[in-house]
Amino acid sequence: MLLFVCAEHNLRAQGELTSDDVQNSIADAEQLLKEYKYEQALEVLKYARQAAQYNNDDKNHSYISNLRGQIYEMNDEIEKAISNYSTAKILAITSKNRVLEIDALNNLGRAKLKKPNLINEAIEDFNQSYQFAAVLKDTTRMVKPLLNLGKHYIANKKYKLAYQKLSPAQKLISPKSDATDRVKLNLLLGKYYLNTDQLDLANQSLDSAVSVAKKEIRNHQNNKDLTFCFNLDLADAYRAKSNLSYARGNFKKAYKLLDQHTKYYNDAQRIKKDVDLQKASIKFDVDEYKKQAQKMEEDLDEKENEEIKWRISIILGIVIILISLAFLISSYKNNLQKKKLNQDLIEKNKELRTAKETAEQVSTLKSQFISTVSHELRTPLYGVIGLTSLLMENPDAKKKNEYLESLKFSGDYLLALINDVLQLSKIETNEVKLEKVSFDLKILIEGITNSLRTKQKSNNNKVHINLDESIDSTLIGDSVRLSQILINLMGNALKFTKDGNIWVNVKCLEDDKKSCKLRFVVKDDGIGIPKSKQKDIFDNFAQVKNQNQEYEGTGLGLAIVRKLIHLHESEIFIESEEGKGSEFYFDITYEKALKEKEVLLTTGENLSIGTTNFNLLVVDDNKINQIVTQNILKKKGYSCDIAGNGADAIEKIKVNDYDLVLMDINMPELNGLEATKIIRTFNSQLPIIALTAVEENEIRVQATAVGMNDVIIKPYDTQQFFQTIIRNISKIKTI
User: Fold this and answer.
1) Domain with 508 in it: what CATH number?
2) Where are the membrane-spanning stretches (predicted)?
3) Cross-strand bridge partners of residue 477
4) pLDDT at 713
5) Could you tell me which residue, 389 or 158, shows the higher pLDDT?
6) Is 74 left (phi over 0), alpha (psi -120 to 50) or beta?
7) Are residues 449 and 573 in the same domain?
8) Which residue of 229, 526, 663, 730 could cross-link 497, Cys pair, CB 3.0 to 4.6 Å?
């Protein structure tokens, strides 16, 4: 600023402006820019522009306008930036300086890209800048507009157009080229190859970008502008590499690369914060200098007037000045505090937004990973559990029955763990929605008790069920979620109780014509839970530890219970004393069935069949799954045909009469959904059931859309398996 004042003084004193004045002012302004003193730089350039105009120096005038445009663009004053770049272009043409015109066109295009209504003009400016640079064979200036266009097309998913610009840029850039251009080119090529499924090339380009950027950061540690840009480029590159690993199915590596993205993004933000603080400090110094200069001038004028006026007014003036100063100091301090608070809030909000976006992406990646892995584990488990069950029923395997039972127990335990993890993941990502269906509460609880009979016998426990007689037999609500809650609570009670009793009590708390509020109580006389542990048992993976490690489990059951009860807008409570047992209770309100409705049968024992002379087609590409399903059906007396894929199934259905089709979903050549869609074009009556390891909520909508009648999730309960088959056959023929 002092430099500018001295320059202005010389201008007035000498009465003429020289070319040396222009060059010196430009050099001073460029130095001020490096120190982030933008306002001072603009003042110096204002003087330089006057000097250039005075000397009719269009060349330097163009250069000055370009510099002014860059300052305004850095301060996000895009309109002023475009105006100065346009002036720079016109003056470059007037001075017949093609290099300045090329720079002005490239800068003009970059600024116009930030205005949606000027994008076409921006593209035209970039193309013109490239063409003029090509005539001069200036490879450095040819590269800039090509990279800017490539970046624009990549951002707008116009990958073909992007490659048309990046390909010539690749030929122009060598290992000796500007490092910034090399990083940008490899980063853009990496994104292009990633989005066009050329994953190996994408990996090579992104690795090159990372290598150069890291080297430049090491070599320019004291240059905040360069390290900021290269840290942002590294964050962008690692984000793309994470997406690439995810596309290859390497979820663990994708997650680690996402951490690298976050690290370099945070490094860039820290540098930006330092620079912003430096800018703010400089701006404050300039503003304070202006205020002080203005105040001094006002004081001088006031003193001159006071010399002329009566001496008595001097005292009054001093009093006014003191009051004004006190007010100014107070206001100044308040403003400083407000500015600091506002700046802190802005920074915190930025950090929170970044953390939120990163957390959301990590959460999505985690959910997708869990869903995929769960499906991949369920498919082989179906074969393991199914083959084990068949071997246990084989007379020749009786001698090894103990080993087979252990194998089946391990398979069932692993399946339960997978289901728990998947269920918890879906609840946490808000994918579970409560449904309203009619169900018989008594049948539901009896069915749950029957399903836990093996666990009941293993610890020699007795289960007592007490239902309030005033409760309507048919209710409307989500019976599946209620089953999950009760199975987990009863399963826990049976596990932690030996030679004891488990009570399941349901009583009506509130009753009216449309709904009733029920209290469910699951009580046992088992080992109980210490007071110190009762607050934590509903947390994920929480378990009551014991010295003998007698009670195995994942610690997910009660966490799932509480989250499912929360879905019902209720809460679960516990009363327990160590050595005397535990009591869990919760309240849920259900609607009453006002009309006769079809009740969802939960036990699978209410459908009967007069014949087993059915002919079924099993469509599955997995040989083990074929054997398991075929043996289960034949054991029931059904005849069974096998198809290894969707295309084979279509041909068999055209020439054979089947009563029902069990269709796998994920198959090569033609998957189950596509095959069903084709079958429905010539056979609309044949029942088709999806037999899949995919989570039911994920596949049911798709299955229904293509014409499937029902869904069975592998591994399945055999009784429910046959009831589903019978139910669907009974809809089209009299059994």
Assistant:
1) 3.30.565.10
2) 310-330
3) 437
4) 82
5) 158
6) alpha
7) yes
8) 526
